[in-house]
Every structure is written in C-alpha cells, then in structure tokens.
Amino acid sequence: MVMTLFGQSLNTLLRRIHECSVSTQVRVGINILYGLKQLHEVGYVHRDIKPANLAVGRRGQETRVIHMLDFGLAREYVIRSEGTVKMRIPRTGTLFRGTTRYCSANAHKRSEQGRPDDLWSMLYVLAEMRGPLPWDRVRGKEEIGKVKEATSDMKLCRNSPKEILDIAIHLRSLNYYTRPDYLLIYNKLAAVMSKCHYRYSDPYDWEKTKYSSHRRHSRRGRRSSASTTSYSSVDS
Predict the structure, then answer these.
(1) How far is CA 46 from CA 67, 118, 137, 173, 174, in A?
(2) CB atoms inside a 10 Å sphere around CB 172
(3) What distances in angstroms separate CA 40 from CA 31, 147, 199, one per listed residue?
(4) Residue ranges of the domains in the chain?
(5) Architecture in CATH for domain 10-198
(6) Among this protein's residues, is 235 annotated catalytic?
(7) Tens digit of pLDDT for each residue in 106-161?
(8) How many CA atoms lie within 13 A of 161 on its CB side?
(9) What is the DSSP string of 68-117?
C-alpha cells in the first residue's frame, strides 16, 4: 500500500493558537465539506471526523488544502447489486463508532450513522475553532450525549457567523435517507467569505503564528549578529 505524506494535523495546528478567526474557520469548513461530499458520493460515510483526522498538505500549495485521514471506521451506506445502487436499511442498536467529543448526538443513541452525522461532526469541529464546545468539560460518553441533546443550535454556534447556524438548522431537517444539500452548505460558507472579503490565499491563523515566530527569531538573530560584530570591532 502506498500512502501520500501529509503535513501536520489540524489538531496539532490548532494548539498553536488561542482561537481561530472566522476566515480560517470558514475556509477549513469548505475544505472538509468538499472531502465529505466526495466520500459520500462514492457511497461511504467516514464516522470519525475530528481535528486529528484532518491534515494540511506537506508543502507548497498543498498546505492550503485540508485532507481527510483515517478511514478505519468508514462504512459503505449503499448496496451495489447487478448494476443497481440502493441505500442500506439502517440498523438499530449498533456499536458505538466515533469520537465522543465530535460524533453526532445520533451516534450516542447507537443509531445507524449516515451522511448527516458526518456533517454534524464537521459542524462541531468548526464550532470548536471559535471557542470551547458546550460539553468541553463533561466526562463520560453518556453524559456528553445528554449535553449534546440539550444544547441548542444557537448556543453551539454562539461564536460563529449566522451562516454556521443556518447550516445547523439545515442538518436538523435531515434523516438517515436524506441527501444533504451540499450546495446550500457551501453557499452559506462562501457567503461569509464574500461578505467579509476573505480570500482562499489568505494565511491560516497557524501560518501567521509560524510567520511571526520566524520573524522574531530572525530579529533576534540579527540583533545577536550585530552585537557580536560590535564587540569584535571594539576588541580589535
């Protein structure tokens, strides 16, 4: 098996910054949405979307792209037979699959996960980029599930643009069989980009931190070099 090498995970990158800007949030969202749409279109759900399973490219323009990793919990939600494709009948009482912090409330109920569940995980990732999730300090799978059920979309998206709340409202309207309106979700995120004049070429927040750190080290290096030169001149 040959696998592409990627850069750092979103989990690692987000630790560098206290809180993400809306610019970084919506661009990450567009990247995740694109990956999920491609995966869903070929008949699979991921079931474990989280920052640790998302990574930037290794170098050059690839560092602008967020890649989806770890398909160990992925499941085919369609059945292909004799040239036809139909959706699997959802099971009841399934085993828990996912990560408690980011899985959908539906996953906590041991219900079959479909395309909307991946998008709920995406929404939780985006919401957390702007501040702690309401269940951030809650421990225990069952307890976290209860808090998710009790958390309003307004509270979940309190630090995000209204368009993120609109996405949550759309997800509420879906069930296992419903195909999400990926274009609607994209348009909501793109509307924020347009309204706030964000560009895809803008640096992500973690790139700004890296650049600032590099500049600080460079200035220290120049100051150190200048001091040494001055000392040598005096010494001579």
Answers:
(1) 13, 7, 26, 20, 17
(2) 10
(3) 14, 28, 27
(4) 10-198
(5) Orthogonal Bundle (1.10)
(6) no
(7) 999 999 999 999 999 999 999 999 999 999 999 999 999 999 999 999 999 999 99
(8) 20
(9) E---TT-EE-EEEETTEEEEPPPPSSPPP-S-TTTS-HHHHTTPPP-HHH
Residue 214 pLDDT > 70? no
For residues 167 and 25, give the distance between their C-alpha atoms in angstroms, rounded to a whole number. 14
SS3 category, 67 = strand
By the 10 Å C-beta count (0-12 exposed, 13-18 middle, 19+ buried), 160 is classed as buried
The tally of CA atoms less than 13 A away on the side-chain side of residue 190 is: 8
Share of the chain above pLDDT 90, in %: 79
- The tally of CA atoms less than 13 A away on the side-chain side of residue 187 is 6
Catalytic residue among 48, 117, 118, 205: 48
- Which residue from 143, 180, 119, 163 is spatially nearest to 26, judged by alpha carbons? 163
Work out the percent of the chain whose per-residue pLDDT is above 70: 87
